[in-house]
Design brief:
84 residues; alpha+beta; 3-stranded antiparallel sheet; 3 strands; 29% strand
Length: 84
């Protein structure tokens, strides 16, 4: 078995970022599920609704749900749920 270093998480969002997402972690895989949102508070407020919507997929119960951010929303990039 190979041990990996745990991911580092922040308590606050990066003030230089302007694109915020609801994200899901499944082991080493990460997914941008919904967004981008204009601010971190909006993304945080949507986490539970997005997670509940994703429960149609049984794998979602084992994922870790939260938020993440990028400096700017990538051009021509969409998330599965958009600004759900």
């Amino acid at each position: 078995m190979t041990l990996t270093r745990p991911r580092t998480f922040r308590d606050l969002s990066n003030p230089d970022h302007s694109a915020f997402y609801v994200s899901a972690l499944d082991g080493p895989k990460s997914f941008l599920v919904a967004g981008p949102y204009p601010d971190h508070a909006t993304a945080i407020a949507r986490v539970d609704a997005v997670r509940r919507h994703a429960e149609v997929d049984p794998r979602s119960h084992w994922m870790a749900w939260g938020t993440c951010s990028l400096p700017a929303a990538p051009a021509n990039h969409t998330t599965p749920l958009g600004q759900f």
